[in-house]
Amino acid sequence: MLELPNIPAVALARRVIRTLREAGHEALLAGGCVRDLLLKREPKDYDVATSALPDEVEALFKRTVAVGKAFGVIKVLDDNIEGLDVEVATFRHDGPYLDGRHPSSVQFTNAAEDAARRDFTINALFLDPDSGEVVDHVNGLADLDARVIRAVGDPRVRFKEDKLRLLRAVRFAAGLNFDIDEATLTAVADMAAEIKVVSAERIQAELTKLLTARGQSRGFKLMLETGLLDAILPEISVMVGVQQPPEFHPEGDVWTHTMLALDLMDYPVTITLALGVLLHDVAKPPTFDDSTDRIRFNGHDKLGAEMAGDILRRLKFPNDVIERVQSLIEDHLKFINVPKMKTATLKRFVRKPHFEEDLELHRIDCLAGPGTLETYKYVRGKLAEFQREPEKLKPKLPIDGNDLKELGLPPGPQYKELLAAVEDEILEGRIETREQAIAFVKQQAQLP
Ligand code: ATP
Ligand code: MG
407, 447 in Cβ contact below 8 A? Predict the structure, then answer.
């Protein structure tokens, strides 16, 4: 029998299902959690589907939130554990889709029709957590077994209803390492351009799931083959065939390098690192130049950061994510200079916020290309050394603007420069005390 993990989320889902049943309703686990349990993967959340109407669900539980009452979705909150909840959705049948995005209405109905409105057969299974019985109205068990993503019903009709499903087909195939059924795949390829009617927010959510689960490179290859990539990230599809100097990139073109890089990420991976890896060379196609001794991509770090900003704003990623990804890309070539860097410059580089992600992008970039980790190891060693004296990595300066004023220096931009120069000296280990700092400033400003 199917074992459910012994965790609070499951206990809550079981309790909710029992309560609903005792009140005379049908209630089952539904969707992603059933699929994941059958695949022996850890479900992200446990969703319940029921014949009870939203009002009836609300009446049965003390603490509820009507998250999507029009669609019949009520969140039931745990009595004791803060932040723990389960979504309870009334079996529903979606009315006509008029805009290619959402149903114009929903009707509450039975489990079989609820299975029929779901996207893929493996996502349309129900599970009785007490008996372990799987309720399968769409032949989803066979597809799980065969590891196939197949639309429920006619794929063209289902994709026409909601065009996000085009991308979801690829996202599930990639994340689960499943194949896409032939008719479903053909429909995705035929209809790929229509993904554009879907809101940026929904596309972003699917891309985020694709990029932070395993199988990303397969997902991107499927997106490329079906034309989805051209529709949502044309800046990535143009990487195909963009040659690189073989002495630095024996692996091949920019696309091959980027796909290899995605495969080299460790898990769990943050969305910022994943986007940084995906986009670090996004400006190689527009900066490609083979007019000199070898192929060059001058300025692809800076232009790449700008392009990433445009792409991620278009996909409505939050500003903090965008800024961090831009910073990763803008700085990804700095590692080349690390062996020659002054200690002060290196210390300033490594103390940038989230430097671990910069270093991880560098590791991945190397392994997906030349394969040498010399600089990576050097930086690791330096980090360990610096961390033995953390106060010397971001030292508190022994003097400030007031001291400069007392020395008789006129306030102005030179204050900032002088204090930065003092910090440099401290980072280099040439200055420690306040007296030394004042002597240094006097000498710099040519004071007697
Ligand atoms: P994940 O674990 O990655 O979240 P999931 O299967 O739970 O996967 P969700 O997007 O959370 O995916 O959706 C939950 C369930 O709702 C799906 O399993 C599917 O049955 C149904 N569903 C979600 N989005 C759609 C859609 N666009 N069209 C039809 N059914 C959908
Ligand atoms: Mg889910």
Answer: yes
**The length of the chain, given as a count of residues:** 448
Q: How many Cβ atoms sit within 10 Å of the Cβ of residue 292? A: 8
pLDDT tens profile 234-254: 999 999 999 999 988 999 999
CA dist 404 to 92, 234, 373, 411, Å? 73, 54, 44, 8
CATH code given to domain 1-146 = 3.30.460.10
- The CA-atom distances, in angstroms, between 426 and each of 348, 397, 413, 440 are 12, 8, 21, 11
Classify the phi-psi angles of 215: left when phi > 0, otherwise alpha if psi is within -120 to 50, otherwise beta: left
Per the listing, tokens 């395993």 go with 214
Q: Whose CA is nearest to atom 8 of ligand 1?
A: 32
**Helices 216-226, 254-263: inter-axial angle, 10-degree rounding:** 140
At 113 the three-state DSSP class reads helix
Q: What is the CA(176)–ligand 1 centre distance, in A?
A: 14
Whether the CB-CB separation of 166 and 192 falls below 8 Å is answered with yes
Contact indicator for 194, 100 with CB cutoff of 8 Å: yes
pLDDT grade for 392, boundaries at 50, 70 and 90: confident
Whole-structure pTM over 0.90, yes or no? yes
Which residue's CA is the nearest one to ligand 1's atom 27?
165
User: 120 with 179: CB under 8 angstroms?
Assistant: no
Cα 31 to middle of ligand 2, angstroms = 8
Give the CATH architecture of domain 235-333+346-392. Orthogonal Bundle (1.10)
- What is the model's pLDDT at position 69? 84
* % of residues, the chain, pLDDT over 90: 94
Whole-number pLDDT of residue 27: 98
What's the whole-number mean pLDDT along residues 366-389? 94
Give the number of other CB atoms < 10 A from CB of residue 400. Answer: 12
Q: Where are the domains of the chain?
A: 1-146, 235-333+346-392, 401-445
User: Residues lining ligand 1, CB < 6 A?
Assistant: 31-32, 44, 118-119, 123-124, 162, 164-165, 209
**Which tokens sit at 282?**
């996004």
Q: Is the pLDDT of residue 230 over 90?
A: yes
pLDDT tens-place string over residues 171-189: 999 999 999 999 999 999 9
